[in-house]
Each structure stands twice: as structure tokens, then as C-alpha cells.
Amino acid sequence: MSKVTCLTRILVLNGPNLNLLGKREPETYGTLTLADIEAALQTLAESLDCTVDMAQSNHEGELIDWIHQALGMQDGILINPGAYTHTSVALRDAIAAVALPTVEVHLSNIHKRESFRHHSYIAPVAIGQISGFGVDSYLLGLRALITYLT
Ligand code: DQA
């Protein structure tokens, strides 16, 4: 008898300036690169029976296009919206429009930082937010999303 596996598909999106991880303000964001974070997610994805497609953009519209394209192609979204967290009604509306279960993650604890980082436009349309654990925010977020979906 052949074994049928049904993989849960997760889109991982990263917003502006996260391409510079590793070099960017390491005292705040750590020394891991985005490629390191993706490798850690891919390893975890194998044990959680899910696939992870990861992308990064510095452009709001491109992130929105990818969220739209996820409809029917992905089961959930893990997103670190970067600074768009605090500014983008359009990104929030895109997540609400596709209605895919979404988890918001941040490397730093946004609530412990400048007051302009305390508000998230994404949080009200996300299942939840994980903030302040570095790469573990992504890994915990993936676990939470998979638990929610299965
Ligand atoms: C961030 C926090 C945001 O406030 C900031 O603009 C970022 C990174 C984080 O992962 O800690 O770019 O999303």
C-alpha cells in the first residue's frame, strides 16, 4: 500500500530591510541572516510535515501581490512585515481579503521599543503575534500556525 502524505503549505513573508539581517543593527536583530532563518524553518518544516515557501521584499505592493497569489496555493501565512507592521493598512487589508490564517512574527520585542512600534496594523487580522525571540519567533510561529491548521 502506498503512503499518502498531505503537506500543509506555508508562505513565509518578510518585509523591508530584513534582507540586511546579519549586518543590520545586530544588537537588536542578532547576527543570523535571512538565509539562516530560512534554513532553520526548512528543518522544522520537515518534522512538522509542512512545506515552507519564503520570500522577502522591500516593496509593499509586491508583498500584497504575494499574499493575493497565496489564495488557493497556500494554507497559511507567517509574516514578519518589518516596518510595514506599523504603517500599512494595505497589507492588513490584503491579509483580511484572502482570509488565510496568519501569524505575525518579530525578531525584536516591538512592545519594549519606541512607542511608534507598539501599534501593529497586522495584529487584528492575525491569529496571534510572537515578538522578541529572534529566530525562535519564526520557529514558534510556524509551530503555532501548524497546530492551528491541523
Ligand atoms: C521587526 C520590528 C519592526 O519594528 C522593524 O521595523 C523591523 C523588524 C522585527 O522583526 O523585530 O524591520 O519587524
Itemize the secondary structure elements and their pairings:
Blueprint: E1 8-14, H1 26-29, H2 34-48, E2 50-56, H3 60-69, E3 76-80, H4 89-98, E4 102-106, E5 128-131, H5 135-149
Parallel strand pairs: 1-2, 1-3, 3-4, 4-5
Helix pairs in contact: 2-5, 3-4
1,3,4-trihydroxy-5-OXO-cyclohexanecarboxylic acid binds at residues 17, 80, 82-83, 85, 106-108, 110, 117.
Description:
The protein has helices at residues 26-29, 34-48, 60-69, 89-98, 135-149, and strands at residues 8-14, 50-56, 76-80, 102-106, 128-131. With 150 residues, it is α/β, with parallel strands linked by helices. It has one domain: Rossmann fold. A 5-stranded parallel sheet has the order 2-1-3-4-5, with helices on both faces. The longest helix has 15 residues, at 34-48. Residues 17, 80, 82-83, 85, 106-108, 110, 117 line the site of 1,3,4-trihydroxy-5-OXO-cyclohexanecarboxylic acid.
The CATH homologous superfamily is called: Dehydroquinase, class II
N-C termini distance:
24 Å
Assembly state here? Answer: single chain
Category from helices, strands and their pairing: alpha/beta
Summarize the structure.
With 150 residues, the chain is an alpha/beta fold. 36% of the residues lie in helices and 19% in strands.
Task: Provide the descriptors you would attach to this structure in a database record.
150 residues, alpha/beta, Rossmann fold, 5-stranded parallel sheet, 5 strands, globular, binds 1,3,4-trihydroxy-5-OXO-cyclohexanecarboxylic acid
